[in-house]
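Notes, Module 5: Reading structure tokens.

Key idea: the token line is not a picture. It is a compressed description, and you learn to read it the same way you learned to read a sequence, by spotting repeated patterns. We will look at two proteins. The first is printed below with its tokens.
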Amino acid sequence: MSRSTLENILEGCTSKLRKIEYCLSGEPTMNKELPEFISLTKKKYPDVKNLVLSNTDLMRTKYGFGYLIDLFDRGMDYIQTDLYDQESKDWFIDECKKNKDILKDRGIQIFDYYKVPFNLYSYGKKIKTIFF
């Protein structure tokens, strides 16, 4: 998706917009403009929840864990990760542990999606969340 496409989508939205999900038809982190998309959406609709669904492969192999933190700093509210192999899961958990103080300072919480009962689409709370 291009920036102009996103801008057209956002222009067509109403104040009732509650969330934007960056997913489907491919890995959202493959689009180099994703950080800017999140910033743009948050600027236009501050109360909209930005959700990214990612397999984290590009974070692990190319961008680094700092990319995830940057997405949160730009206005991402949730990331749901699909850690479909042990290598990905081990890397992600290790990075979360290494960066736990940074995550905590930014108010980012981490949940195991299958072990912690949490409503991913909760709109009332202003929290930042990582689900793995």
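Here is the second protein, with the sequence above and the tokens below, as before.
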Amino acid sequence: MSNQTDHWQKWIPILEKEYAMEMEKAPRPCSEHGSDHVFRVLRRCVTLGEKLSADLEILVAAAYLHDLGMHYAPARVHGCLSAEKAQPVLERIGFPGEKRDPVLLAIRTHDISASSEDRKTLEAKIFFDADKVDAFGVIGVLRYIRVVYGKLPIDFIIEDIESRWEGLSFSETRETALEEYQYSKNYFVQLKKELEMDSYGLELGFVSILKGK
């Protein structure tokens, strides 16, 4: 276990440097998928990966490189572009050859374009979960407000939260993320109710004004 720990930890400073270099040349940096998101996903990957005896080297590399495509063409479907951008990075740093394809698979299949059947490895499933639960909790609410709120209906946000929860691969993920999931969902359910009440109140007020005339 200590050897594996040494192996995956040694990649962190290397990948941090490569990530910074990639961000410098990216034409459209996306703050919602920046380094803070990377670090949260990385932390969850390590926690879940240790529980499930996964290859942490694969998970660490995927965490740093999984959203590279978002900084070129921001879109919900960005896994394939991110994998395309990640491949030369893995080659450049001398990442173990036999682990490059598993890293690219995890990256390629972490967005909504991939099905659960596409995530054929333990690491791809773990990585999908670690990335998706970043939409839960207080930070998840903030990310939805920055990216989605005002552009799409609140019902879309609620359905997206539910879809992420239902699509999680492991019971271990659900156990650790349940409270944060409930917080995010309840926040937007309550927001929808209060906005509907405000709208109804304004409508009644407008009707009263018209009657007064």
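Summary for the second protein:
- The chain is about 75% helix and 0% strand.
- The two ends are 79 Å apart (CA to CA).
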